[in-house]
Structures are given as structure tokens and as C-alpha cells.
Write a structure and sequence with these properties.
Blueprint lengths: L6 H4 L11 E6 L3 E7 L6 H4 L9 H17 L7 E13 L8 E9 L5 E10 L2 E14 L4
Antiparallel strand pairs: 1-2, 2-4, 3-6, 4-5, 5-6
Length: about 140
């Protein structure tokens, strides 16, 4: 088995907006598994919610999308491209995620073309579904800054 990439070696995202800590499995342009370890030091926990810190659902969706970006951008055909959200369908949040939890994520990409694709993602904590969604993404060229 080949070495697994570090998320920041594949994605353009950087802290504080990089939500994949490690990639545990990858099939380029097809699927990926990874983790996000929530320490409680993340800034959003202070305000969401004071006294009852909870991971915002939109950040779970972003973490799944980033993992999908790792799967897509690990394929030579998509290097130098930028996957962007095109839509989110059937998002469901099944349990609260709190400091100290590890979000175990899986994404499967399908209906992939040169310009767009779809992915289905699921995030678990302690074996229980925390979030699941279908996502549409468009594939844009990277612009020079």
C-alpha cells in the first residue's frame, strides 16, 4: 500500500480552515476515509455554544467535502484544479459532536466528469452516524493570486 498523503499536501486549505487531520484510506477520484480530531481548542467552540460546545453541522459538511477534495485531487487528471461546492442534498445531522470526539469520515465520489461530480459522505463518532449528505461539486481551474 502506498503512503497516504497529508491533507495539506493535496488540498489548498490551511488552518484554521483545514478540517481533515489525517487520511486513512484513498482510492484516487473514487473514495477516501479520514479523521478530524476535535481538541476543544478550535475557536468556533467558544461561541457555538457557550457552556455546551457543539461542532457546527456546516463544518461537518465542509470536512466531508474536504475529504472528497483529497480523493479528487489525488488523481493526476484533477491536479491544479479547485473543487467547489455546487450544492448539498439530503443533509442529516444525527448526533452532537463535542470537544474530544474524533470524526471518522468516508466519502464516495460518483458521476464524475471533467467539470463536476457528486459525492456521498458520512461522518461517525464512536461508530454512530453524526452526519450524512450528498454533495454536488464543480471543478474550477486554480487562478493565480
Amino acid at each position: 500500500m502506498a503512503d497516504l498523503p497529508r491533507p495539506d499536501a493535496v488540498l489548498p486549505h490551511r488552518p484554521p480552515f483545514l478540517f481533515v487531520d489525517e487520511v486513512t484510506e484513498i482510492v484516487p477520484s473514487t473514495s477516501a476515509k479520514g479523521r478530524w480530531h476535535l481538541t476543544g481548542d478550535e475557536a468556533f467552540f467558544a461561541g457555538h455554544f457557550p457552556g455546551r460546545p457543539t461542532l457546527p453541522g456546516v463544518l461537518m459538511l465542509e470536512a466531508l467535502a474536504q475529504l472528497g477534495g483529497v480523493a479528487l485531487l489525488s488523481d493526476e487528471r484533477y491536479r491544479g484544479k479547485l473543487p467547489l461546492f455546487g450544492g448539498i442534498d439530503k443533509a442529516r445531522f444525527r448526533r452532537q459532536v463535542v470537544p474530544g470526539d474524533t470524526l471518522e469520515m468516508e466519502i464516495v465520489l460518483d458521476q464524475l466528469s471533467a467539470a463536476a461530480g457528486r459525492g456521498k459522505g458520512t461522518a461517525h463518532v464512536d461508530g454512530k452516524v453524526a452526519c450524512q449528505a450528498s454533495m454536488l461539486f464543480v471543478i474550477a481551474p486554480v487562478r493565480d493570486a
